[in-house]
């Protein structure tokens, strides 16, 4: 299994957490993890738990960059993709922002609606620009 597949599972888990209001561990148990190796499994857990634990700051960064839109109006899957990408951009400095953005766009192509890709790209581009201008990622 690859990191992209781990991100796909993370989207599924965050979707479940958001939609069904379940515990992260229950959501992780619900996504099929049988084929996952150690590193990818750890990466999946890190993404899900990191996005949940830092959700307030992540959502604030997303809200600041929504134009004529609200978090509540976002599709569950778009919200999940954005939360994973913003978690990576703000909290995981081992992953270049461009990689996080590209992976989010691939996820949007797979899971989102047609307009999701452009929308997610615009939001993430603004967050990356903000992060680069401030010269710091949240640690």
Automatic annotation (TrEMBL):
<feature type="domain" description="NusB/RsmB/TIM44">
    <location>
        <begin position="4"/>
        <end position="129"/>
    </location>
</feature>
<dbReference type="InterPro" id="IPR006027">
    <property type="entry name" value="NusB_RsmB_TIM44"/>
</dbReference>
<protein>
    <recommendedName>
        <fullName>Transcription antitermination protein NusB</fullName>
    </recommendedName>
</protein>
<keyword id="KW-0889">Transcription antitermination</keyword>
<dbReference type="Pfam" id="PF01029">
    <property type="entry name" value="NusB"/>
</dbReference>
<comment type="function">
    <text>Involved in transcription antitermination. Required for transcription of ribosomal RNA (rRNA) genes. Binds specifically to the boxA antiterminator sequence of the ribosomal RNA (rrn) operons.</text>
</comment>
<keyword id="KW-0694">RNA-binding</keyword>
<keyword id="KW-0804">Transcription</keyword>
<dbReference type="InterPro" id="IPR011605">
    <property type="entry name" value="NusB_fam"/>
</dbReference>
<comment type="similarity">
    <text>Belongs to the NusB family.</text>
</comment>
<keyword id="KW-0805">Transcription regulation</keyword>
<dbReference type="InterPro" id="IPR035926">
    <property type="entry name" value="NusB-like_sf"/>
</dbReference>
